[in-house]
């Protein structure tokens, strides 16, 4: 029986909302024949989604990624689950795999889960552990990435990495197809109805506006990057390939322990990101203020201070994120037909766009609160 519906988590999120918007608005005939069943939590969200997308979307109420029995039962009704809500809740993500496994039948194509994860899984520990300067993970050899992540997680568990490895391992065991897009820094304005904000540029720009300077834990921390629309298009491409190919993508799209793919477009040092933040703030007149440095400076900081200021006290995330080498190369997705449209010019423009969004109050905080003129 032909697939007529897919299941989506994260419809109110940054990536999930953008995926949904671009999927539903696509003129591609294969995609137009598909209804998206979105897991939601409130009547208000349901109403807004249905007003915007009409019959192309159906909403299903759930209790979130801890509602394990419901997840298994629901996932068992689908051939494709797009899990782009959260990559940090291992039991919830594995429950989707267990539900999909109920559909595994002899001589029938196995179902797919398309999972989301992130580059901090790949970060080394140059301050408290082992540094790997110059290392680059290439998804042309995804099994090597999986093996390293599994071994690293056994040494130092990290929820997002534990979830990614757990999903791929369990999928292989149960005969389910699984891909995890291990994403770099995601930038750009989301096109969904709810959360439109990324993380890395807004967080670092907010820091610069509040403190008047940049920070560094070392000189080697880096990020690859991808625009949110291009990332959404990567997921859409995978769905389309699964729907259209005679083999349902099996053996064509890497899966399971070979299924960590990188949606990387460009790469920068973290200090370069902070330099761009300082450039736009000084050019706009936001900086300097009376209580901030009069020149553009990036100050050396300690791990605990940055963990407290930027990552809610989480030392492991602070070190992997703000000190780690997370370099990745995405070889597979372009070979499958992925063509990112937002390149260096879009990356540079986003710093101006984010400062404008902050000043207009379109982020989760106000500009006045950042500069200390309003509580």
Written overview of the protein:
The chain has 375 residues and is an alpha/beta fold. The chain contains 15 helices and 14 strands. The strands form 4 sheets. The protein has a 7-stranded parallel sheet with strand order 3-2-1-4-5-7-11, with helices on both faces. A 3-stranded mixed sheet has the order 8-10-12. A two-stranded parallel ribbon has the order 6-14.
Structural class: alpha/beta
**What Rg is obtained from the alpha carbons, in whole angstroms?**
21 Å
Query: What is the beta-strand fraction?
Result: 15-25%
Order of strands across the main sheet: 3-2-1-4-5-7-11
The helix/strand series, from N terminus to C terminus, equals EHHEHEHEHEEHHEEHEEHEEHEHHEHHH
The total strand number stands at: 14
Q: Whole-number average pLDDT?
A: 95
Seen as an oligomer or otherwise, the chain set is: single chain
* Low-pLDDT regions: 369-375
Principal-axes shape call: globular
* Number of helices in the DSSP assignment: 15
Q: State the major sheet.
A: 7 strands, parallel
Helix content: 40-55%
- Tell me the distance between the termini: 57 Å
